[in-house]
Amino acid sequence: MGKIGMRQARQLGWAALLASSSAFAQSADTLPLTPLPAAVVLGSGTFTVRDGAVIATPPGDAGAATAARVLAAHVKTERGLTLTSGAGTAAITFARDATVSGDEAYRLIVDTSGIRVTASGDRGLLYGAMSVAQLLSPDRAFGKAAKVPALSIEDAPRFGWRGLLMDVARHFQPIKEVYKIVDQMASVKLNTLHLHLTDDQGWRFEVKRYPKLTEVGGWRTPPSSGGPVGPKHGGFYTQDQLKALVAYAAERGVTIVPEIDLPGHAQALAAAYPEFSVFADAPKVGHDWGVMPYLFNPAPEGIQFVKNVLDELIEVFPGTFIHLGGDEAIKDQWERSPKVQAQIKALGLKSENQLQSWMIEQFGTYLATKGRRLIGWDEILEGGLPASASVMSWRGEKGAVEAANQGHDVVLSPSPLLYLDQLQSNLPDEWNGRLAVQSLEKIYRYEPIPVGIDADRAKHVLGAQGNAWSEYLITPQQMQHAFFPRAAAIAEMTWSAKDKRDFSSFLDRVQPQIGRWRRSGMHVSDGAFAVAYQLQGSRGDALRANKAVVALSTQASYGTIRYTTNGSEPTSKSPAYQGALTLKPGVTIRAAAFDKSGNATAAARAFDTGRAALLTRTTSDLAACPGGNLYLRVPLTPDATANAPVYNIELYNNCSAYPAAPLDVARGFTVSVARLARHWGLAHDTLKRRDHYPATMHGELLVTARCTAAAKDKTIKPILIGSFALPDPETAPNQFTFSGTIPEMQGDEDLCFQFTSPLSAPFYTVEKVELTEGASK
User: Fold this and answer.
1) In the prediction, which pLDDT does 774 show?
2) C-alpha span between 404 and 391 (Å, rounded)
3) CATH 2.60.120.260 occupies which residues in the chain?
4) What's the CATH code, domain 531-609?
5) How many angstroms separate the CA atoms of 538 and 260, rounded?
6) With 0-12 CB in 10 A as exposed, 13-18 as middle and 19+ as buried, what is 695?
7) For strand 461-468 and strand 373-377, is the pairing parallel, antiparallel, or unpaired?
8) What is the DSSP letter of 553?
9) Where do the H-state alpha helices sit in 468-564?
10) What does UniProt give as the signal peptide span (predicted)?
11) pLDDT at residue number 6
12) Measuring CA to CA, how many Å separate 216 from each of 283, 285, 414?
């Protein structure tokens, strides 16, 4: 969508406004609107909307009636006011106006006589309604009449693709939870929900011609961490359920883009119909996360199978785009199959990557005959991009640059930045996910038109989307935690003009939106606004000096931090944080940030300066051993529905480090250990894993001091201070402890906790290390 035209601005007398960016910023900053509108003029006076206020729509205008109905539903939930359609003087009016150009554009005028929304398209009316809903719920005054300032807004989005990806294949989400996400996407004018419907771990779309895709492929047995395994995980959506969802989403301006992932990520397909896999073997539905070897068979019968699936898919999903994956398809099976190699030769192709491009072209051409367009992940570029395909760029921006410059439409979704299963903060109470933090600010500041796309090719950038992959997002609440509030950043990044975006303004405007989401029943992460604590110097320094110096901060640097040291909850009247606090060990700090209205922006967090607490490191405090890298934050079992406990793990070395352990203070240790299922499909990355050759049947836990120093300086020898045989996974619980003593040493040294269990055995990690003091010197 283009920017608002000057002709339309003059119709409302806005030419002076559009010439002054400072006037624009000042007026927009006063409004609780997310995303930021294209143009705003504040007038004089207000209009009050009370309970029972009437909404008027043109007779027989179904789009306007839908916008009014959606508006009433949001206002009822978010403000506690009932809006009615019927007789009486209308407080809010919807009307068509052909001068508002673009299906998603709208005009909104508030004066002392009422509120009027006009648009030429259905989505424009809906987005105008969502702006009205936000204006009617600017604060926490639930159930009270809403006073709206006089204003004029003329608005349209910068990009036509403003999306989220919901992975329902790895962990199935009940259909009602998808409805909830659609509702809250609409509230911030996001318009594309990408449903990842198939993967190695599950097939979620009912295909009537191939019922085993869901009967068999829809369910998996979880991996074992020792002893009996848990119940099967799975589920699927019927076509009738999805048709109803599509209709519901369409009324809220949201198009659903379905994804059937091929030729890789196809183990569930192979389990259900082995005749369509490369070697016609029948694996179990996958329970490992990552890259599996099973590929779809591109023989003629396989191509026809996919076309048959597509026939049913397009009957359910009427949108323009069908996503066919194409990612992470390691070609081992194709390389080793005589039949596939013969097919490559017969087609006159030179590589397996070219075969994938040929396959994509078959499906793209087929979809074109049905009036649809194919889109895939950027790997479909590797063998030459078929003319019919569009690209979703996830491996950075290179794929988008290359495809757009070739004249193909692209959607930006680069990893890790727009991967919403990445954690939102480094807070110790963060939930499951990947450990590379992608903050609210980092996502907000992303620019969807990458450097390198020629100016005349920028039109091929359709927009951007954030992806929530669900290997580690299990429950609906965890999915919501990943989406919100970062969905608001994606909404503004894709809707608002680049030169009008301002993060400080956004933080003010997103606070009311967070309140609306919570009143709508969403779990919203507060990680960007919660107080984090940083002990100045090492823990050993604090223990030796018998004082702790603690700095407080928030990730977004928003609001005023207020704190207590007497165990009470902080309030807007508590002391304001001015600088690092110097405390005697034993004091617990509790702190939260408060906005200008005195409202807490996040739940209070605590920091214990007691000596026992300073000697304890939890999984969140541990580091990777030398040469390693912490990757993931995972639950105790792959399908655990509780939000704790969770563990930071290092996939390739199975080792964690307690940094700067005060070994002159500590004389003993207790390490809490968790045994997890080893369920990571690393494909060719398995070469990175270290095998430590266990000395006992099930391996050991080795505890060493000076491990980091020894890794840096080969003349230094690590000191083994503990060796513990791991128990039989089949009979032992999956949480247990080991304790040992520490010899007299000097100063701070890293402690490493290395597990030597066989690579075929379950995976171990450290939950917590507690050091205990000896006699003082």
Assistant:
1) 79
2) 9
3) 616-773
4) 2.60.40
5) 51
6) exposed
7) unpaired
8) E
9) 476-483, 486-495, 503-519, 539-545
10) 1-25
11) 35
12) 11, 8, 33
The pair of three-digit structure tokens given for residue 387, joined into one six-digit string: 């003319």
Instruction: Kindly give, in sequence order, each residue whose CB lies less than 8 Å from that of residue 776, ignoring residues fewer than 6 positions away.
Output: none
CATH 2.60.40 boundaries in the chain = 531-609
Contact 92, 53 (CB under 8 A): yes
Rg of the chain (C-alpha set): 29
Which residues in the chain land under pLDDT 50? Answer: 1-26, 776-777
Q: Which CATH number fits domain 161-519: 1.10.150.20, 3.30.565.10, 3.20.20.80, 3.40.630.30?
A: 3.20.20.80
Q: Which amino acid is at 482?
A: A
Whether residue 467 contacts residue 446, with contact meaning beta carbons closer than 8 Å, is answered with no
Alpha-carbon span 207 to 323, nearest angstrom:
16
pLDDT digits (tens, 9 = 90+) for 118-153: 999 999 999 999 999 999 999 989 999 999 999 999
Domain 616-773 has CATH 2.60.40.10: no
Residue 138 makes CB contacts below 8 A (sequence gap 6+) with 31, 32, 146, 512
Phi and psi at residue 340, in whole multiples of 5°? Answer: -70, -40
In the chain, CATH 3.30.379.10 covers: 6-155
Q: What is the pLDDT of residue 577?
A: 98
Indicate the fold that domain 6-155 takes in CATH.
Answer: Chitobiase; domain 2 (3.30.379)
Please, what sign has the CA dihedral across residues 345, 347, 348, 351? negative
List CB contacts of 650: < 8 A, sequence separation 6 or more: 624, 625, 628, 629, 630, 631, 656
Q: b/e per residue, 71-86, with b = 16+ CB within 10 A?
A: bbebbebbbebebeee
What letter represents residue 12's amino acid?
L
Q: Pick the catalytic residue: 104, 251, 328, 379?
A: 328
Whether residue 492 lies in the annotated active site:
no
Work out the angle between the directed axes of helices 476-483 and 175-187 (0-180°, nearest 10).
20
The pair of structure tokens assigned to 108 is 């909104």
Peptide bond into 174 cis (omega under 30): no
Indicate the residue type of 538. S
